[in-house]
Amino acid sequence: MLWASVVAVLVLAATSRARSTAPPCRCSPLPPAGLKVDCSFSNLTELFGLPPDTTELLMQENRLTSVTPGLFDKLVGLEKVSLSGNPFHCDCKIQYLRNWLLKNMALVSQQPTCASPGSVARTEISDLSDDYFTSCGKANSTCGLFNIVIAVAVCFLIALLAYILRLAKMSTITLYIHKKHSELDAVALQPLRPKRRRRVNSRFSMDSQNSDSLLYVDDLEKPLLNLELLPQVLDTLQRRHNIKITVPEERRYAV
Asked: Where is the signal peptide (predicted)?
């Protein structure tokens, strides 16, 4: 266990040396199985990598502005802590340290104070009231409520899209051929080349002046539509594509 603590302190010292030219953290064993970690005057900006069997922690005169939530909870054998001389910024992030200090007043040799904001400058962190952190709770609850609303909206949109897709898949398209179309010959369904289309249109316009119904076109080639396959085509459209074509009984087999 002692060797693991020494390795952790060496990692802490190496990181401290990489960040600053100040002296690294110093580690020394404390009987019977404790460990003293001295990182004072090391110009550190955060606490990390502390050995779990640390019993004495000296972190005064650094550049700490806050403490990571849960950092001290792992140090069950901690007996002495020094955090004075750090420019702590007392906002919502300092709430964990304030709560920890209130529960462990006997472990702190000198109470740390706030350096900012100006309204609480030089105030001991443990003296901050619960009302001071009221806005933090509201911010968290507002953020949580916003996340819930967004999640509900996303779920609603997904359900709506799934319902629309299911409805589209189950829907049937029905084409009705009314009685007024009963005299329309199947030849009108075949594609025409541009010249022939113009000829049919001109003849249709001439004949439509003398009759109220559509006339047959006699000069076209044989229709491309095989009327014998019409029932099979209608059945395939209905079964595979949900397209239903309704033809009056009197015209269904009239051709």
From this structure: 1-18
